[in-house]
C-alpha cells in the first residue's frame, strides 16, 4: 500500500529553523492501522505531505496505492483520502451538499455522489445534521464530516493527521469509535499521526517513531515497550543515603528518598531486589511496579518526552 525508499526532503521554515527528512524507508501493507509518532519538527508532517503528493521529495522514491508519488501524483490522489489537522468543509453549504460536491470533484456521477453521501452520513451518525451548515456543528461533529469528505470516493488508504487534536475526551472516544467502524466496514488502510500516545498504544497495530528526520523505532506497541523501555520498579526508603545505596545496588537512579529502575520483568525482579536491599540493611518503605508506556519508549530512545509537545 505504501512503499518508500530513501525518501528525503530538506527545507527552511520560519525563524530560520530547518526541518528535514533524511531518508525514510517504509512499507505499509494493505489493511494495517499505523500510528506515525514523533515530536514537533521530527519530520512526520513532512513525510505525510510527501506521501500524499502535497510536497515533492528531493530524492528517493515512494509508491502509494500502486502509483509513484512523483511520476503520477494524480493517480495517487485518486486512490487515497487525506484528513488534515484543520477543518475541510466550507461554511456556505449544508453538510449533505458539501459531501455531494466533494464526490463530484472526484468524478462520481451525481447519482453516485448522492448515494455515497447518504451511506457515509449514516455510517458516521451525521444524517440528522445533513441539513445544517458546518459552522453550526460541534468540534467532534465537524471532525466526523472531515472524515466523510476524505472517504467520499471510497479510497483504499486514508491518511489522518491528528484526527482528534483539540477535542474533549468524550469526542475523542467518539471519533475513534467511528474510525474503527469504518475500518471494519471497508477494510481501509489507516495511516495516522497523533500526539495522544494512549490512542496509538490501544488502537494501532503498528507504531512507527520518527525523530531527527529518521525512523528510530518500528513495531507493535507491546514489542516496543518490552524491548526498548522495560517495566518501571519504584521504591522509597527512610533516608536519602539509603536511596543512593539502593540505586547503586539495583543500577537505577535516586531522587531524594525515591529510587527508580528499569527491568525486563518487574514481577520477577522485585522480590530479588527487595532481598538484596534487606541483606544490605536498607529498609524499604514502599515498592510498586508499572508497565511501560510509549512515552517511556520515546524517552529511552531520545532522552525527551513526546508529552512535551502535547497540544494544550
What's the structural blueprint in terms of helices and strands?
Blueprint: E1 2-12, E2 18-28, E3 33-37, H1 44-51, E4 59-64, E5 67-68, H2 73-79, E6 80-83, H3 95-105, H4 110-123, H5 139-151, E7 157-161, H6 169-186, E8 189-193, H7 197-203, E9 206-211, E10 214-219, H8 221-228, E11 231-237, H9 240-250, E12 253-255, E13 258-263, H10 266-279, E14 284-290, H11 294-302
Parallel strand pairs: 3-8, 3-9, 6-7, 7-8
Antiparallel strand pairs: 1-2, 1-4, 4-5, 9-10, 11-13, 11-14, 12-13
Helix pairs in contact: 3-4, 5-6, 8-11
Task: Describe the structure in your own words.
It is a single chain. The chain is an alpha/beta fold and 312 residues long. The chain folds into two domains: 2-225, Rossmann fold (3-Layer(aba) Sandwich), CATH 3.40.50; 231-291, Alpha-Beta Plaits. It has eleven helices and 14 strands. It has helices at 44-51, 73-79, 95-105, 110-123, 139-151, 169-186, 197-203, 221-228, 240-250, 266-279, 294-302; strands spanning 2-12, 18-28, 33-37, 59-64, 67-68, 80-83, 157-161, 189-193, 206-211, 214-219, 231-237, 253-255, 258-263, 284-290. Strands 6-7-8-3-9-10 form a six-stranded mixed beta sheet, with helices on both faces. A hairpin with a 2-residue loop joins β9 (206-211) and β10. α3 crosses α4, α5 (139-151) runs parallel beside α6 (169-186) and α8 packs across α11. The radius of gyration is 24 Å and the shape is elongated. Residues 12-18 have low confidence and may be disordered.
Amino acid at each position: 500500500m505504501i512503499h518508500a525508499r530513501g525518501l528525503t526532503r530538506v527545507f527552511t521554515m520560519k525563524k530560520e529553523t530547518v526541518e528535514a527528512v533524511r531518508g525514510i524507508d517504509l512499507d505499509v501493507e494493505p489493511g494495517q492501522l499505523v500510528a506515525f509518532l514523533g515530536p514537533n519538527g521530527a519530520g512526520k508532517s513532512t513525510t505525510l505531505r510527501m506521501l500524499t503528493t502535497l510536497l515533492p521529495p528531493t530524492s528517493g522514491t515512494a509508491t502509494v496505492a500502486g502509483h509513484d508519488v512523483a511520476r503520477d501524483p494524480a493517480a495517487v490522489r485518486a486512490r487515497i483520502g487525506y484528513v488534515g489537522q484543520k477543518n475541510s468543509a466550507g461554511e456556505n453549504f449544508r453538510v449533505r451538499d458539501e459531501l455531494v460536491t466533494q464526490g463530484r470533484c472526484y468524478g462520481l456521477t451525481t447519482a453516485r455522489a448522492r448515494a455515497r453521501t447518504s451511506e457515509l452520513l449514516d455510517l458516521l451518525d451525521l444524517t440528522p445534521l445533513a441539513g445544517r451548515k458546518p459552522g453550526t456543528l460541534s468540534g467532534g461533529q465537524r471532525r466526523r464530516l472531515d472524515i466523510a469528505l476524505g472517504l467520499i470516493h471510497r479510497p483504499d488508504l486514508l491518511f489522518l493527521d491528528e484526527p482528534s487534536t483539540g477535542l474533549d475526551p468524550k469526542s475523542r472516544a467518539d471519533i475513534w469509535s467511528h474510525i474503527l467502524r469504518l475500518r471494519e466496514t471497508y477494510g481501509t488502510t489507516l495511516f495516522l499521526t497523533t500526539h495522544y500516545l494512549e490512542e496509538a498504544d490501544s488502537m494501532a497495530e503498528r507504531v512507527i517513531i520518527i525523530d531527527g528526520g529518521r525512523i528510530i523505532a518500528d513495531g507493535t506497541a507491546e514489542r516496543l515497550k518490552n524491548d526498548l523501555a522495560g517495566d518501571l520498579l519504584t521504591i522509597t526508603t527512610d533516608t536519602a543515603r539509603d536511596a543512593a545505596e539502593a540505586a547503586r545496588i539495583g543500577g537505577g537512579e535516586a531522587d531524594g528518598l525515591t529510587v527508580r529502575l528499569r527491568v525486563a520483568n518487574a514481577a520477577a525482579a522485585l522480590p530479588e531486589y527487595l532481598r538484596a536491599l534487606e541483606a544490605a540493611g536498607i529498609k524499604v518503605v514502599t515498592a510498586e511496579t508499572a508497565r511501560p508506556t510509549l512515552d517511556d519508549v520515546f524517552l529511552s530512545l531520545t532522552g525527551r518526552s513526546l508529552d512535551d509537545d502535547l497540544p494544550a
